[in-house]
Structure to design on (235 residues):
């Protein structure tokens, strides 16, 4: 099993995660509830636990193979709970486009970049020199954020980390009346070429604005949105 480095395994990754946590701390001194999805390998969940050790962290991953990796990687962190779901605008079983990359070098495979949205041919074009890309349609359990909060008796989300490979529209629709204080989301132009029917940066900004969020800062593919009407929840 590969050891997880919560602050990253290379200098750019370490720097990005340190900048991200510093940015979050401008708005949240002591968050109580953090949701992060898709979790992939659990690294972000571990990052948030180490950065905010008093918070309850919920790591959610739709890909069944990746979910098993999450379970293995977080097993020594009792404050992190893992759930096998796709976050969507409906609760039940849904179609999920599982993505697998087969290495030409050694035949090994990894499962990443799976989505509720159909992949475009750009995925194979980008990796054609190193990997064979295969997209497989499978069924996975899905849940809305509204229903997840009801089931887990969550009254308020302080930080919600959204990495759903383009399916941001479905996440927003599934919020219903749930309004996290901060939303850190992979959105927009950088991923549009990889998935059908996703939203641009501008469309994402408008969609979040329509439900009460202000864009704080964009770092790479990720954007921080703040619900300016909410202050950090105190005891």
């Amino acid at each position: 099993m590969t050891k997880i480095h919560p602050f990253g395994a290379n200098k750019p990754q370490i720097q990005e995660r340190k900048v991200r946590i510093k940015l979050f701390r401008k708005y949240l001194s002591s968050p109580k509830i953090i949701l992060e999805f898709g979790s992939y390998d659990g690294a972000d969940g571990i990052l948030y636990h180490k950065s905010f050790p008093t918070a309850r962290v919920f790591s959610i991953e739709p890909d069944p193979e990746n979910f098993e990796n999450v379970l293995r990687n977080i097993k020594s962190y009792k404050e992190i709970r893992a759930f096998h779901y796709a976050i969507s605008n409906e609760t039940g079983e849904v179609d999920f486009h599982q993505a697998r990359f087969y290495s030409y070098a050694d035949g090994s495979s990894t499962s990443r970049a799976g989505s509720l949205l159909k992949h475009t041919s750009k995925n194979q074009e980008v990796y054609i020199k190193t990997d064979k890309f295969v997209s497989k349609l499978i069924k996975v359990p899905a849940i809305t954020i509204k229903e997840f909060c009801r089931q887990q008796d969550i009254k308020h989300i302080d930080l919600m980390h959204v990495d759903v490979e383009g399916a941001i529209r479905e996440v927003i629709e599934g919020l219903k009346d749930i309004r996290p204080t901060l939303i850190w989301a992979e959105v927009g132009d950088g991923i549009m070429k990889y998935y059908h029917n996703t939203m641009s940066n501008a469309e994402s900004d408008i969609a979040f604005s329509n439900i009460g969020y202000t864009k704080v800062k964009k770092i790479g593919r990720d954007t921080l949105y703040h619900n300016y009407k909410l202050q950090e929840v105190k005891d």
User: Anything to note?
Assistant: The domain at 11-90+143-226 is CATH 3.40.50.150 (Rossmann fold). The two ends are 39 Å apart (CA to CA). DSSP finds eight helices and eleven strands in the chain. The longest helix spans residues 11-25.
